Each structure stands twice: as structure tokens, then as C-alpha cells.
Amino acid sequence: MSDGSKPLPGVLRWNLGDLTVTVLNDGWFQDSAENLVTGIPAADAVGLQKSGHRPSDPRVTLNAFLITGPGRKPLLIDAGYGPLSPVDTLGRVPAALATTGVTPAEIETVLVSHLHPDHIGGLLGDDGKARFPNATLVLHADEAAHWLPDAALAKAPDGAKPYFENARKVISAYEGRVVEHRGGEVAPGIVAVPLPGHTPGHTGFRITSGSRSLLMWTDVVHLPAIQFAKPEAGVGFDVDGDQARETRKRILAEVADNGTLIAGSHLEFPALGYVARDGGGYRFVPELWVSGQQ
């Protein structure tokens, strides 16, 4: 008999031209609005959560993305929290990936959006070694420069040191297999889009196949019930809150005006849709999913 208390893997495939984009849900964590939200009063954040039928203490969901297609090796965008996860509601990407039939050894490229642990912890196995033995990591040069040097760790505030230590631990597991970029094409049909602020080298990825395109914007929005309505709202782990706010406002306006299909690391699963203007803010419009969609 199956254990009904054990969550099933969160996996959903979407067609994008000749490519398949598979959303891999890593789980969720929860914290208070007071701890999570910056830029607006906590009471306003709680009100937006309630009006969105979400708990007052926001749950932040987490996704990674698998890109597959004819004539190309499977590619990952981020890898979830993995063994670095502080809670047992996270770390589900390996189980999700297993349902796709793609093995870790088949993945030769992992596009790293940024070096926060919820995006790179899953690059490690439980043994602390590289989970993807044949993969090259691709990340923005400014991200590497911020988190990896000895001097950066030495001058980091004590509360932030674990972020630096975890980034160094993950990258060291892939020594000799790390490639840095400053935007532009990072894989066939995939262009890196620098989105600085959340971290210095925070990067999204524009994926194009034929006439179809998707912007995976990574961490532009962490709290959908709050930040679409109030783009000025940030999160406490933004490295540069002001720059992150300006990037969010710019990207929201751009994708709303252009009708761009978007995906996000912290949009609620299955995490693909559109942005529409709504009064002085925006709202998220989920993409229509149908079985066997083309």
C-alpha cells in the first residue's frame, strides 16, 4: 500500500517549439511576512496574502527546469536545494528528475542562475560530491566574483557567511568544469539575460525554439501574491534591494507589454504564464495546460 502522506513528485512537461521544458518542483519553505518582505509594511504583505487566499506566513515555492529536445543533450537550469536544505519540505528535484527518464549522468550542462543555496544545493549529492558527474556549470562572472574569492568570505558579515561557504563548497565539487559568462548565448537557443540586484550576477534565460520563446526569469518574483501587485516589495535575501526592485519593475513592464511567456523559480507550480497590467501593479495569468499539448 502506498504512503498517502508522502508527496508525489511535482513534474510537468511543456512544449516550446521543438523543445520540451519540464518543470521540476523542489518543494517549499515558509516564514513570516516580517522576516521575508521588505519595501512595504508587513501588514500590507499579510493583507495581500490573505486576499490571494494564501497563508499570512508566506510559503515560498521552488522550481528547477529541464530542457530537452532532438539532437541535444538534456540541460538543467538550477538544481534545487538538495542536501543543503534546512527543512524536509525541500530537496525534491532528484525524485522529480527520476520520473523524466533522464539520469544525472546524461546532463552535460547546468545553467546556474545564481549561487544562493536553494538553486545550487541540489548540485551536490548526499555524499557532498557532484550529483551530475559529467556536467559543466555555467554562471555569470559577477556571481563568481561576489561569492567565491577568499577575500569575499573573509569580509562577509557572520550571518551571511553560510551563503559564501555553501557557494564555494558546490563550485569546488565541479572544479575544472565551471564556465563564466557575461550574457549572450550560453547553449543552443538559450540566451543569458542578466537581471542584477537579487544577487550581483543573478541571471534569467531566454529560451527560443522556432517561433516560440520563454523567459525563465529566475528570482524576479519570490512571492506572487505580493510582488505582482506591489513590485516595490522585495525579500530579505536580496543582496541589493534597490537594484532588485528596479530590475523587477523593468522586467514586469517589459513582459506585460510584449505578451512574453515567462517562468520563474518561485512562481507557484507549474510556474509558467503571462503578466498583465492591473491598476498600478500587475497580475499573473497562468499558461493553459492541456494533456498532450502542442
From TrEMBL:
Residues in the signal sequence: none
Stored InterPro entries: MBL_superfamily_lactonases, Metallo-B-lactamas, RibonucZ/Hydroxyglut_hydro
Pfam families named among the record's database cross-references: Lactamase_B
One GO MF term: hydrolase activity
Alphabetic keyword roster: Hydrolase, Metal-binding, Zinc
Annotated transmembrane regions: none
Domain named Metallo-beta-lactamase: residues: 61-266
Family label: Belongs to the metallo-beta-lactamase superfamily.
Designated name of the protein: Glyoxylase-like metal-dependent hydrolase (Beta-lactamase superfamily II)
Organism: Methylobacterium brachythecii
Lineage: Bacteria, Pseudomonadati, Pseudomonadota, Alphaproteobacteria, Hyphomicrobiales
